[in-house]
Specification:
The longest helix is centred in the first third of the chain and has 8 residues. The strands form 5 sheets. Strands 1-3-4-11-6-9-12 form a 7-stranded mixed beta sheet, with no helix packed on it. It has a single domain, classed as Jelly Rolls, CATH 2.60.120. By secondary structure, it is mainly β. It is about 5% helix and about 45% strand. The mean pLDDT is about 95. It is globular, with a radius of gyration of 18 Å. The chain has 2 helices and 23 strands.
């Protein structure tokens, strides 16, 4: 298991970062690698996120010194969404089939978690996000058709989108993890505008389904001190609780969002007016 460690950053320090510093601290340029389990550990709410792309043998989540536990989920919970070909998750010996677009919640205390391909010629890509937990809930498969849809935006503001809530109180129980996927309609490029913050929760964005030349300009920083991070296909970015959450692209894209923090109220946001942004 490949684990990259990222530390917390104070907003007063971040305002002095140049482009290279911003990318080094907040951007994950490669989430998937064939035959590997690549994860990033951010000290922002101690979230772990990344991708499993099985090639031959099963890929297993394990504990260790970095987590301080024998097993990965001894003190954590996990959300998974498959964006590739059909695959399987194996939880304590039980196999769960996951087609493209299917999700999975795995509760604290699950002893073993593994990932396999169903068809080696069309490998699965399991994107995952984990956070600390203090309560255990049952594992739940969330088929794409069972995710809770919320349609937002308008053509006039170029942000017509459907937010599919996977790990969310409307779908399944979790301790503090909230996770879902947002699909934009053709011609829409803003994932939200005006932006917002939520001081009570951090967020990780994973952008995918992008053409090779497409780029997302992910907005970052405090409302009155904004920066941007330019992102390509299948890259992820850490948005601390003090940072705005918004982005715009040069073409079509989809993204998976995941949050951890004080509560699970999706609408608990500190909304901003366009005039607040600098």
């Amino acid at each position: 298991m490949n684990l990259d460690m990222r530390y917390g950053n104070h907003p007063e320090d971040v305002r002095r970062y140049d482009t290279a510093d911003l990318r080094r601290h907040f951007l994950v340029e490669r989430v998937f690698s064939a035959g590997e389990l690549k994860l990033t550990y951010t000290h922002v709410d101690r979230v772990i996120f990344g991708g499993a792309m099985p090639k031959g043998s099963r890929l297993e989540l394990v504990g260790g010194k970095e987590l301080g536990t024998e097993r990965f989920l001894d003190r954590r919970e996990l959300g998974v969404i498959n964006i590739g070909g059909s695959g399987r998750a194996i939880l304590d010996g039980k196999t769960i089939d996951l087609a493209k677009g299917d999700g999975l919640y795995v509760g604290m205390g699950t002893a073993s978690v593994g990932f396999e391909n169903a068809d080696p010629s069309d490998p699965a890509k399991f994107y995952m996000l984990s956070c600390p937990a203090h309560q255990s809930y049952p594992a739940a498969k969330i088929e794409f058709s069972k995710a809770n849809p919320r349609k937002l935006g308008s053509p006039e503001s170029c942000n017509v989108r459907t937010i599919y809530q996977y790990v969310h109180p409307a779908v399944c129980k979790s301790c503090q993890l909230v996770m879902g996927m947002t699909v934009l309609e053709p011609g829409s490029v803003w994932n939200t505008w005006p932006p917002h913050t939520h001081e009570r929760r951090m967020e990780v964005y994973f952008y995918f389904n992008m053409a090779e030349a497409t780029r997302v300009f992910h907005l970052h920083g405090r409302p009155d001190e904004t920066r941007h991070i330019v992102m390509a296909n299948e890259q992820a970015v850490i948005s601390p609780s003090w940072s705005i959450h918004s982005g715009v692209s040069t073409g079509a894209y989809t993204f998976i969002w995941g949050m951890a923090g004080e509560n699970q109220n999706f609408d608990d946001m500190d909304n901003l007016a366009p005039s607040d942004i600098r």
